[in-house]
Each structure stands twice: as structure tokens, then as C-alpha cells.
């Protein structure tokens, strides 16, 4: 088909016959600002196929127009030609198959097109796709609410749109399968005079140039001769397609906008090609409000853009169908085309690295962390003071290094690793190198003796890097294992699903470190601690939820209650059932406010938040909610090891609730020395669990938090636990009342009104803090901080521990005259 089209158009140009249809001329006079649009689809086309030597026509089209990477993902990981053409038809993700196509197998053929009236071989006439009603029924369970026949209505009054090729017919068919103007292929050389009439017959023309054969590397384990033959076949088809594109562009009417797009990515998921050439699209990179990424476009952007170019309005949508978001592809400046193409090839390379390695990376990372901490425990086991100090030091170093790996992989994006040889090795090598740098600074900085210092510094760097990246376009997350995948096409800006719980963990631990530092500088000042932690909380939530930045629904719903629990503990506010209910809905309330504001004032950063509000107001939100819930539930079976994550979450919750019953002596001892520790870890746990429950990525979001949450929690616990509970050289603060040694028998800590995780009442015979058998219920009451005069984890002046406070004003202590 590609070869026939190329020969035919070459003859057309040689003949010099350029007639124009009267209908097209009259419409152009009536609406001079409405551009004729020609859409050309080539299945499997990639930027790595396109060079000035092998595809000169496409190279010229991109050189004088605006180019971009096209994310063609629709329903399944592999987008077949039928999927792409149906998505163009409806303006929403659609599929031509009810089952996923294997990455190594061929796509099913396009549905047959029946010509109803055969006027001539060069005249477009009515046709029908008998399978269209069945395809509509097939797409109902996917809940994307396609608007069938939408693209054809972009032609304007009379719906004059020409389809050339079976894929084009699928794009322009109405719900009954009718195609008003159809030709099975471009005119051949023997009918050149009529050919250009067809190309100009209607203001909207869609042309299917077929699909390229898969490259040899993707053809499976073929013999060498067969691989060479496959590559040669692709080269021949590519050359023919290029000639056809050159002929179409030369024959396009004046003022036309020509769109070249990849229609499918068979046989495996790949990023495709999109080029727009015409008025307003010169020497640039394409972008859209749906991606916010220069040079990146999604296939669902094309249909509404065609409406914009045609100056056509969306017709009234059918019942139960939501109108697509009105947008127009825009062009931003670029340098040379060669540099832009190199960068776009790199984008596909980055996604291939992500797709092929990320699952194994997470498995290796989790196992390696467990083995590393087990080896430290075995090699340095024992109870001697020197051995304990060494064990704590090694635990701390291992924790900050492994906890810094996620942010290290983001910082790897500062270099174009995807454009260099051995990209996977470079990505992970740079990630581990950055993690090592962060760990060295964390362990050697002035905060090294602060129990919260090294873990807090690691969390702060993680929070700052992600926040700055989100506010500047999320460039560092693209292709990173904890970041965003263009191939998945789920999110292109803001905080990715793999990073949202990492961000939440980092925010909470940073706020905890800030509060503890404020208390050391101004002992007993709850206001200073609240200001420090509150500043971190507000900044973190705004970056995550604001439509112009993160626009993250699930993450904001999860993070706001977690921060409020932490701030309540710092402010010594008891969480009553009423306050608990307010905290529980606080995230939903804030997201709703952001969403309504985004809907009313799109200028703040139009996002899916405002789009969802529009769907709710027009009664079309059911499909979106159904997809989100289904995606969350399906995450439990995404891999063979994801069912382990809920078990880890439950076990961690039990450890936080009943550490004494589970005989977690180190944790109990640590909680008795810092009232902030247990509350901050509970807040982290709460954010991760809520993120699992409300984010559409489900358990995957929680799983991504484990690499940073678990090691940093271990470091905090072992470091805080090493502060001696009894020291003649120091002081023990019980409920804010300084005294030497443990509290007297039967003494109750002051300030029992402090917020603490729920747990069972103290068992009979429970020992006071510092005895090695501290009860968890007492861990959240008041402050029990023992600080040595020198040495240990945090050498501080007497009475100036992790969060030491003057008499009567420690964290968890009730102020004078306030009942506990």
C-alpha cells in the first residue's frame, strides 16, 4: 500500500494537474481562518527511523514544522493500529481488541471496509465498517467514555471528510460504521488527474499509509539472514512512506495544516512520532496542557487540536459521554532539528530502560537492603558499648545511603544519560553515586551528632529535590525508576505514582527534624517547633496539591492528615473523635478546594483536577472513578511480590501500636527518649497507608516508599535509643520536670494530654522508662529525654536532649491549668 501511494503521488506531481474542489473553495472563502487539515498515519514509525538521508521528505516536514514525541498508549501496553485509529475517532482512549496483545506477537488486522457505491477507482464514495457497533460494545468495560464519530464532525457543516485507507475509515466512521467519503488507497499513477481532486475534496482528509514491518531487533530469535531480510523490508517500506508523505505535502492546499503521526507501536511499546506543519507551527517543539513537557504529546491531544484548527465546535455529546478537554497543540522554540531528534530518541531509550529494568530493580533493591542490614546485625552483634556504637554507626550509614537512592536516581537526570552509550548502567550508576554523596554529607555534616540529623538531612534533600523538580516541570522524574514513564502515559507532570509516598515520607521526617532542631535552639518553645514543622508541612502540601505544580489528588488526601497528626503532637493537642474526623476529611477538603479553583480559574495551571470537577458537574465522573478504583485493586496482582506489601504495612502498624507486647526493646527505649519519634513514624505509616488506599496506583505507591521509609526509620530508632536513660553526668527530663535518675516509683508523667498512637493500657508491673521495658502507652506521654554530657549519638549540654524542654513545657506536657 505504501509503495502504491508513493508511485501514484509522484506521477501526480509530475503531471502538474492541481484541480480544487468547488466545495473546498467555497468553505475556504466562507471561513478563511479555518485551515484544511490533512492527517497522515504510519504505524510503528519512530524517531530512530528518521534521518535526512533515509527519509528526506519527513525530515524536511519536521525541519520546517513543529515536532514531538507521541505517546500512543491507549488501553493496553502495546498500541495496535486499530487502537490508535479508534482513539482518533473518539478523542478518548479506545481499543480494537478485548484482550492484551503480546509484546512479541502481531497485532490483529484492521476491520474490513465495504464500499457501498463504486463510482470509480479514484472517486471517494460511501462505505461502511460492519464491525463498528461491535467495537463500540467492546470498549464499554474500559470506562473511558469514547465519543464515537467525534473526529468526523471536526470537518464542520456537511461533515465532508475523506478517508483514504482502512485505518482512516476507522478514524472517520460514525457509530453505525458509515464513512461518507472513502478510498481504499491513494490514487495510482494512471489516475493522476483525479488524485489531487480527492486530496482537496474535503477540508479534512485522513490518510492511512499502513504500518512499517517491525525492526529486526524486535522480530524475535530469527536467523541472521532472516533478520537482514526483515530490516531490508522495513527500509523499503520506510522509503516508500517517505515518498508518499512528500507527495501529500506538495499536493496540500494552501494554508493547510499537515499532521504526521505514528498510529501504533507494534510489536512492542515505543514512543512514536508526531509532526505538525502549517500556519503557527514552524521550527518548534510540540507540547500541550495535558503533558506540560516540551516535545511530548499524547495521542488524545490530536482530535481536539483538529477541532481548534478547523475552528469547529464540539457538538452536543451523547448521553453518558464527556466532551474531551478543549486544547490545541502549541509549538515552543527549539534548536537544531538534529539535536531535537537526538533528544526524542533518548526519551524512547529512557522508557525502554524503565520498562525492561524497573521491576527487577525494585526487587533487587529491596532484597539488597534486607541483606545489608542483616549482615550488619550479624557482623556487629553483641552488647558491648563499643560494639553497640559501631553497630549504630554502620546502621546509620547504611540507612542514609539506601534511603538516598531514590533521590539519587532523580539527580541522575541532570545529565542526559539516555543519549549516551549504556544508558541503564549510567542511570543506576549515577543514582548510586549521588546517593553516596548525600550519605557522606549526611554523616559528616554539623548535624551528625543529632539523632534526627543524618536521617533528617537525607529526607530534606529528597523533599527539596522533588519539590523543586515539580515546580520546574518534573524533568528529573522522566525515565527515573521512581519517576514518570512516558510510555505508561498516566502522568507527565507533578509527582509520579512511584514518588508520591517517597515525597510524603520525606516531608514528614523533614518536619520532625525541623521541630526537634527548633526545640534545641529554644527549649520549651512549642511555637518555634510548630512554626518550623508547619512551614515544612504547608510548603510540602502546596507543592503536591496545587494544580499548577503537583496536582496530585491521592497524595494530598494522604499527606494532609498525616501532617496534622504530627502538628497536633507538637502543639500538645489531644485528638478527640471530633478532631479525628476533621483530620480524616482534611485532605479531601483541600483537594476539592484546589479542584474547584482549577475549574474556575484555569490560568493557575489547568490540570485533571479541574477536568474532574467538570465531569462531576455534568454527570460524567463515573467512568473516571471506576477506572481509579479498578486500577487500585488490580495493583495487588501487578507482580508476584506486591501482595507482600500489605503484609508489611499491617506488621508495621502492629509494631507501632504494641512495641512492648512484641518485645521491640530498642524501639521502646527510643520512644521513651523522644516523644516526637513514635508520632512521626506513625504519621509516615498513616500517609503511606492512606496513599495506598486513595491513589489509583494502589499498593505500588506504598511499595515505592519502603526503600526510604524503612531504612530511615531504622536509623532514627537505633540512634535515639542510644541516648542513655540514666546518666550521672546528664539529666533525665520526665514530663518536662528535670531530675537526676529515673522517676520515683509510681510517679506519673505530666502532660498526659499529648497525642500518642493508640495502644493497650500498661500491663501490670510495667517498668518506668529507661529500664529497657518501657511501655508504649507511656512513650507518647511527656518527654523522657536522657542526654549525656559528652559522647553518645548526640552530645549536648545537660538537659538539652533531642527535644528537651524546660519544666512543665515538654512535648506532650500540658500547660499550666490545662487538664490532661
Instruction: Characterize the largest beta sheet: strand count, sense, and whether it forms a barrel.
Output: 12 strands, mixed
Unreliable spans: 3-32, 189-193, 726-820
Q: Give the termini distance in whole angstroms.
A: 82 Å
Overall geometry comes to elongated
Q: Give me the Rg, rounded.
A: 31 Å
- Strand tally: 15
- The tally of helices reads 25
Share of helix among residues?
40-55%
Average pLDDT, rounded to a whole number, is: 82
Please indicate the percent range of residues in DSSP E strands (runs of 2 or more).
5-15%
What does this structure look like?
The structure is a single chain. This protein has 820 residues and is of the alpha/beta class. 47% of the residues lie in helices and 9% in strands. It contains 25 helices and 15 strands. The strands form two sheets. Strands 1, 2, 3, 4, 5, 6, 7, 8, 9, 10, 11 and 12 form a twelve-stranded mixed sheet that branches. α13 packs across α14 (453-471). The longest helix has 43 residues, at 337-379.
Amino acid at each position: 500500500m505504501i509503495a502504491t501511494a508513493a508511485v501514484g503521488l509522484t506521477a501526480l506531481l509530475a503531471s502538474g494537474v492541481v484541480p480544487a474542489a468547488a466545495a473546498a473553495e467555497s468553505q475556504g472563502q466562507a471561513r478563511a481562518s479555518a485551515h484544511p487539515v490533512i492527517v497522515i498515519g504510519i504505524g510503528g514509525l519512530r524517531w530512530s527511523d528518521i534521518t535526512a538521508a533515509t527519509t528526506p521528505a519527513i525530515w524536511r516536514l519536521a525541519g520546517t514544522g513543529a515536532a514531538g514525541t507521541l505517546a500512543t498508549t491507549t488501553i493496553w501496553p502495546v498500541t495496535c493500529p486499530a487502537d490508535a485509529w479508534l482513539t482518533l475517532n473518539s478523542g478518548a482512549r479506545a481499543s480494537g481488541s478485548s484482550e492484551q496483545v503480546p509484546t512479541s506477537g502481531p497485532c490483529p488486522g484492521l476491520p474490513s471496509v465495504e464500499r457501498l457505491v463504486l463510482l470509480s477507482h479514484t472517486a471517494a464514495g460511501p462505505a461502511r465498517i460492519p464491525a463498528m457497533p461491535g467495537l463500540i460494545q467492546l470498549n464499554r468495560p474500559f470506562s473511558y467514555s469514547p465519543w464515537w464519530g467525534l473526529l468526523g464532525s471536526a470537518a464542520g457543516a456537511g461533515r465532508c471528510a475523506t478517508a483514504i485507507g482502512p485505518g482512516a475509515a476507522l478514524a472517520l466512521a460514525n457509530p453505525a460504521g458509515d464513512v461518507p467519503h472513502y478510498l481504499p488507497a491513494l490514487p495510482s499513477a494512471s489516475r493522476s488527474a483525479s488524485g489531487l481532486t480527492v486530496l482537496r475534496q474535503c477540508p479534512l482528509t485522513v490518510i492511512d499509509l499502513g504500518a512499517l514491518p517491525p525492526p529486526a531487533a524486535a522480530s524475535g530469535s530469527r536467523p541472521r539472514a532472516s533478520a537482514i531480510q526483515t530490516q531490508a523490508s522495513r527500509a523499503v517500506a520506510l522509503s516508500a512512506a517517505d515518498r508518499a508523505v512528500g507527495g501529500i505535502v506538495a499536493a496540500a492546499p494552501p494554508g493547510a495544516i499537515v499532521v504526521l503521526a505514528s498510529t501504533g507501536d507494534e510489536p512492542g511499546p515505543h514512543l512514536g512520532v508526531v509532526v505538525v506543519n502549517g500556519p503557527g507551527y514552524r521550527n518548534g517543539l510540540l507540547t500541550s496542557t495535558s503533558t506540560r513537557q516540551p516535545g511530548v504529546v499524547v495521542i488524545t491531544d490530536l482530535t481536539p487540536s483538529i477541532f481548534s484548527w478547523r475552528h469547529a465546535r464540539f457538538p452536543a455529546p451523547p448521553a453518558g459521554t464527556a466532551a474531551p478537554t478543549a486544547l490545541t497543540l502549541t509549538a515552543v522554540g527549539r534548536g537544531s532539528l538534529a539535536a531535537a531528534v537526538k533528544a526524542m530518541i533518548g526519551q524512547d531509550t529512557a522508557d525502554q530502560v524503565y520498562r525492561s529494568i524497573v521491576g527487577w530493580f525494585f526487587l533487587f533493591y529491596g532484597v539488597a537492603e534486607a541483606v545489608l542490614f542483616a549482615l550488619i546485625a550479624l557482623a556487629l552483634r553483641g552488647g558491648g558499648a563499643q560494639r553497640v556504637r559501631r553497630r549504630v554507626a554502620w546502621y546509620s550509614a547504611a540507612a542514609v545511603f539506601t534511603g538516598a537512592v531514590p533521590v539519587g536516581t532523580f539527580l541522575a537526570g541532570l545529565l542526559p544519560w539516555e543519549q549516551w552509550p549504556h544508558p541503564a548502567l549510567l542511570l543506576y550508576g549515577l543514582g548510586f553515586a549521588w546517593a553516596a554523596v548525600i550519605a557522606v554529607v549526611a554523616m559528616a555534616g554539623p548535624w551528625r551528632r543529632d539523632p534526627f540529623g543524618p536521617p533528617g538531612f537525607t529526607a530534606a534533600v529528597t523533599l527539596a529535590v522533588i519539590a523543586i523538580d515539580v515546580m520546574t516541570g518534573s524533568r528529573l522524574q522522566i525515565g527515573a525508576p521512581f519517576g514518570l514513564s512516558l510510555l505508561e502515559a498516566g502522568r507527565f507532570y507533578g509527582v509520579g505514582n512511584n514518588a508520591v509516598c517517597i515525597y510524603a515520607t520525606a516531608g514528614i521526617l523533614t518536619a520532625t527534624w525541623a521541630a526537634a532542631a527548633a526545640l534545641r535552639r529554644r527549649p520549651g518553645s512549642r511555637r518555634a517547633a510548630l512554626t518550623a514543622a508547619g512551614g515544612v508541612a504547608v510548603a510540602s502540601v502546596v507543592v503536591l496539591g496545587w494544580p499548577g505544580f503537583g496536582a496530585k489528588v491521592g497524595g494530598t488526601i494522604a499527606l494532609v492528615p498525616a501532617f496534622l497528626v504530627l502538628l497536633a503532637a507538637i502543639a500538645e493537642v489531644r485528638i478527640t473523635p471530633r478532631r479525628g474526623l476533621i483530620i480524616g476529611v482534611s485532605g479531601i477538603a483541600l483537594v476539592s478546594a484546589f479542584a474547584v479553583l482549577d475549574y474556575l480559574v484555569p490560568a493557575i495551571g489547568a490540570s485533571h483536577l479541574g477536568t474532574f470537577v467538570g465531569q462531576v458537574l455534568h454527570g460524567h465522573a463515573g467512568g473516571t472513578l471506576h477506572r481509579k478504583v479498578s486500577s487500585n485493586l488490580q495493583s495487588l496482582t501487578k507482580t508476584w511480590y506486591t501482595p507482600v506489601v500489605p503484609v508489611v504495612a499491617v506488621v508495621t502498624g502492629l509494631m507501632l501500636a504494641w512495641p512492648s507486647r512484641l518485645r521491640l526493646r530498642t524501639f521502646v527505649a527510643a520512644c521513651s527518649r523522644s516523644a516526637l519519634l513514635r508520632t512521626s513514624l506513625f504519621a509516615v505509616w498513616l500517609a503511606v497507608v492512606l496513599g495506598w488506599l486513595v491513589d489509583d496506583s494502589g499498593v505500588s505507591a506504598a511499595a515505592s516508599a519502603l526503600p526510604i521509609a524503612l531504612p530511615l526509620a531504622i536509623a532514627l530508632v537505633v540512634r535515639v535509643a542510644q541516648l542513655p536513660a540514666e546518666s550521672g553526668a546528664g539529666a533525665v527530663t520526665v514530663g518536662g520536670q528535670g531530675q537526676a535518675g529515673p522517676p520515683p516509683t509510681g510517679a506519673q508523667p505530666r502532660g498526659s494530654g499529648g497525642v500518642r498512637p493508640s495502644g493497650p493500657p500498661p500491663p501490670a508491673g510495667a517498668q518506668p522508662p529507661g529500664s529497657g521495658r518501657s511501655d508504649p502507652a507511656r512513650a507518647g506521654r511527656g518527654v523522657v529525654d536522657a542526654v549525656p554530657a559528652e559522647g553518645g549519638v548526640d552530645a549536648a549540654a545537660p538537659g538539652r536532649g533531642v527535644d528537651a524542654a524546660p519544666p512543665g513545657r515538654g512535648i506532650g506536657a500540658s500547660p499550666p491549668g490545662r487538664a490532661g
